[in-house]
Amino acid sequence: MSPAFFRRLAVVLATFSFAFSLPASAAGAKAGQWKGYVGIDAMTGQTLVHENADVLTPPASMTKLMTFAVLYDKLQSGSIALNTLVQVTAEDSKIGGTQVYLDPSESFTVEEMIYAMMIQSANDCSYALARTSAGSVEVFVQLMNAKAKELGMTRTTFRSPHGLPPKSRKLADGDLSTPRDFALLCRHLVLKTDVLKYTSAKQRDFGPLRAKGPQHMINHNKLMGKVDGVDGLKTGYTASAGYCLSATALRNNRRVIVVIMGALGAEGKIDLGASRDRKTIELLASSFAALPAGSPAFVGAPWAAPVSPLSPSAEPGAPGAAPSADEPMVKFNFGPKKK
Questions:
Q1: Domains of the chain, with CATH numbers?
Q2: Which of 143, 153, 226, 312 gives 20 to 30 Å between its CA and that of 318?
Q3: How far apart (Å, rounded) are the C-alpha atoms in residues 96 and 100?
Q4: Is 269 labeled as catalytic in the residue annotation?
C-alpha cells in the first residue's frame, strides 16, 4: 500500500482516538445537527468535503473574522497602527454579550483589543475598533461588505462588526453568510494576513494595568491544543445562529479549513457546542484524507509566535474565565494526562 494510504489512515485513527477520549455521555450521545459545512484545501481552495455549503444563515461571532480582515487592511495602509490607542466611549461599553467590560475611562492599544476580539470574542472591542479605525461603525460595515465582494463572498451581507443579533431579532436584518463564503474569507486570512498570530493564542490577560486586575481570557476554540495542528480560527453562537466554527489545521505541511454553521445537539438541543466540535474534528480528518496526492505544501503569511503574558495566579475559573452569554464554553475530558 502507498505511503499516502497510511497517512490518511493515521488521520482517521487519530480522530477516533479523540472521540473515544470524550466522556461516555458525550461520546455515546446521538449525533447533533447542523445547517451546513464545507472543508477546503487552504492552498488551492479546492473543496474537499461539503454539505449544504451555500445555506444562508447568521455567522454569529465568526463575523469578527471579517472585522479582522478590514482592520488588517487599515494596518497595512498605515491609517492605524498596532500601538494606536483606542479611547473607549460609553457606546462601546454598552454593546453587551461576550466582552471585556470596557469602561469609558479606559484606553487600550489596537493590538490589545484585537487579541480580546479574537480570544475572548469581545463584542465591545470589536465595536470600538470599528469605530476608531473607520471614523464610524456604519462606515466600517460598508468596508466589510466591500471586502466580502472583493473576496467573492457573493451571498454574504454584514451589518455589524461583532455578529450579535439585530434589535429587531429578524434574521434578514442581521449578518448573513454561508459556509462556502466563510471558507473564502478564512483562506484569504491564512494566506494573506497574520490572523494566526491571534487565533493561536490559547490564553492571555487583558488590561494588566487595570485597577481591579486583568481579565484572564481563554480561547473559545476548545480544539486548540487538543486536536493535531489546530491553530484557529473563530467560534460563534447565538440562539438564531446556533453553534458555528471556522477551524483550520496544519499537518505535514498541508493546511485545511473547515467551516460549520448552525450546529446544535441532538433534536436541536443546546449542548454548549459539543456536537459542533465533534463534527469539526471529523471534518478536519475527512478533509485531510481527501487531499489529492501531491497537493502543494501550504505557504501562508509569515507571523511571529504570539506573546501571551499571564499573571502567575491566572487560572481557569478566575474572574473573566467564566462561560459567556453568547458563546458558552464546553469542557471535554481528554483522558488522563501523561506524566
A1: 30-290 (3.40.710.10)
A2: 226
A3: 10
A4: no
